[in-house]
UniProtKB/TrEMBL annotation:
GO terms for molecular function: ATP binding; ATP hydrolysis activity. This is Sugar ABC transporter ATP-binding protein. Residues 4-239, 243-494 form the ABC transporter domain. SUPFAM superfamilies: P-loop containing nucleoside triphosphate hydrolases. PROSITE patterns: ABC_TRANSPORTER_1, ABC_TRANSPORTER_2. Keywords: ATP-binding, Nucleotide-binding, Repeat, Transport. The keyword ATP-binding applies. It comes from Candidatus Pullichristensenella excrementigallinarum. CDD domains: ABC_Carb_Monos_I, ABC_Carb_Monos_II. InterPro entries: AAA+_ATPase, ABC_carbohydrate_import_ATPase, ABC_transporter-like_ATP-bd, ABC_transporter-like_CS, P-loop_NTPase.
Length: 496
């Protein structure tokens, strides 16, 4: 049995102690969930293990060998493998080529394709993953791509495997397949660390839970000895989890109506109506067309046929994001870093992009009004930032998401569309995002909410539409179903 352990690890940055006297151990043949809110220090600890950072003091060991890596490649060569949330596979190459990229077997000067595919197949079979190694990665679905990332790490015979949010882009049925693969990996003499914000996954896959908070080790527990409330208590102290307020009730007025909307290879014949002040969820598996539908309604992607009505009037002519913005719509995109923020610009800039027309006076910008509006969003959304001049790249995921929301709220929208707003943020930040949605609904702002996390839809929404293979197959109300029923409806197209 292999043991990875730390002794009194401390890591200091200018003005901040990221890790404070961390002594912990992880054994092989188990999955160890490493949990903590954003800023807790878990990513810093993983970076130390992977050679991206060096501790200020303290040490870490694998079995009895003291480790110290000058560079990440030193850690990889030793056997420390990290699979990050952002995938690094190349879509134009085959599965086998991705797994052995940079290490392709050769016979003489030529690539030994037979051996390459055979070796890749052995690794995939060891995880019970039924994936053809000759398949191009662009033809895989998301969970298969995640399996390829893990297979790439396993191909280097790691002694420690670190998984950072491996299910962030997966639907529930795909998560189950990934977990079955991890159960096979557990049989090896490999230490497995599993970072996630999805607490409901932890009992399904983890054997132990280790929690960091504000750079300190709060504790480690066997999964059989702790429940979700206990984990939350370790992560946040006393956390108040609110349910949807009783006064978040849709009005009678229809603010948005979609009729027979079609987009080739994305969705077809989608029709629904959104009421004033309603929080409307859209559920479905990955590939069901949820995100594509929001993007088409907002004008990011063109739809082929159908009609959109705002406050009873058809939107005619070319539909663009700029036109829809002026009609009162807003969209927080699925990938906030690539499409929702300019990471190399200030918080002030990122809170002003959508509403910059409001502050323009000819060729000049009313800086005072712009600054006042940004300060208002920081205060009302409880955005934690040292200064409005701070780049958004330096913020936590939860605060980045609040900036994306604040950017659009500054434009006073009547309809907000949220695409995976809680992806990659901790439980506390998720709760704050939900409270923002409810607060806006109480003001009469309507919301369309897309999330892979079906539990979130049940918690947040007044009504949930079901998309399956691009078709709207029905709707449910949270008070009339549960997570199992909603999941079954999304998968099988039949209500419970």
């Amino acid at each position: 049995m292999a043991i990875l352990r730390t002794e009194h690890i401390r890591k200091d940055f200018p003005g901040c102690r990221a890790l404070d006297d961390i002594s912990v151990r992880f054994e092989s043949h188990k999955v160890h969930a490493l949990l903590g809110k954003n800023g807790s220090g878990k990513s810093t600890l993983i970076k130390i293990f992977s050679g991206a950072l060096r501790p200020t003091s303290g040490a870490f060991y694998l079995d009895e060998e003291k480790l110290s890596f000058a560079l990440p490649r030193d850690a990889v060569e030793f056997g420390m493998a990290t699979v990050y949330q952002e995938m690094s596979i190349i879509s134009s190459l085959s599965v086998a080529e991705n797994i052995y990229l940079g290490r392709l077997p050769k016979r003489g000067k030529a690539i030994d394709w037979k051996k390459l595919n055979r070796d890749a197949e052995e690794i995939l079979q060891s995880m019970n993953a039924d994936i053809n190694p000759a398949t191009l990665v662009r033809d895989l679905n998301i969970w298969q791509c995640q399996i390829v990332e893990i297979a790439k790490a396993l191909s280097k015979s790691p002694r420690v495997l670190m998984l950072d949010e491996p299910t962030s882009s997966l639907a529930q049925n795909e998560v189950d397949k990934l977990f079955r693969a991890l159960e096979e990996i557990k049989k090896r003499d490999v230490v497995i660390l599993y970072i996630t914000h999805k607490l409901h996954e932890v009992p399904k896959i983890a054997d132990t839970v280790t929690v960091l908070r504000d750079g300190k080790l709060i504790g480690t527990s066997e999964i059989a000895e702790i429940d979700n409330s206990g984990i939350l208590s370790m992560m946040f102290g006393n956390v108040s989890i609110r349910s949807r307020p009783t006064d978040v009730v849709p009005g009678e007025k229809t603010v948005l109506e979609v009729k027979n909307l079609c987009r080739r290879n994305a969705f077809e014949q989608v029709s629904f109506a959104l009421k004033q002040g309603e929080v409307l969820g859209i559920a479905g598996m990955l590939g069901s067309g949820r995100s594509e539908l929001l993007r088409s309604i907002f004008g990011v992607d063109k739809f082929d046929s159908g009609k959109i009505f705002l406050n009873g009037q058809e939107v005619t002519g070319r539909i663009t994001p700029r036109r829809m913005k002026f009609r009162g719509l807003a969209l927080t995109p699925e990938d906030r870093k690539k499409e929702g923020l300019v990471l190399t610009q200030s918080t002030l800039d990122n809170l002003s992009f959508a509403s910059i027309d409001k502050y323009a006076k000819g060729w000049r910008v009313d800086k005072k009004a712009r600054l006042a509006a940004a300060k208002k969003q920081v205060e009302e959304l409880r955005i934690k930032v040292p200064s409005l001049e701070t780049f958004t790249s330096a913020m936590s995921g939860g605060n980045q998401q609040k900036v994306v929301v604040g950017n659009w709220l500054s434009n006073d929208p009547s309809i907000m569309m949220f695409d995976e707003p809680s992806r990659g943020i901790d439980v506390n930040a998720k709760q704050q995002i939900f409270e923002i949605i409810w607060a806006q609904a109480q003001k009469g702002i309507s919301t369309i909410f897309v999330s892979t996390e079906l539990e979130e839809l049940l918690e947040v929404c007044n009504r949930i539409l079901i998309l399956r293979h691009g078709r709207l197959i029905g709707e449910v109300r949270p008070e009339e179903t549960d997570i199992e029923g909603l999941y079954r409806f999304c998968m099988e197209g039949a209500a419970q």
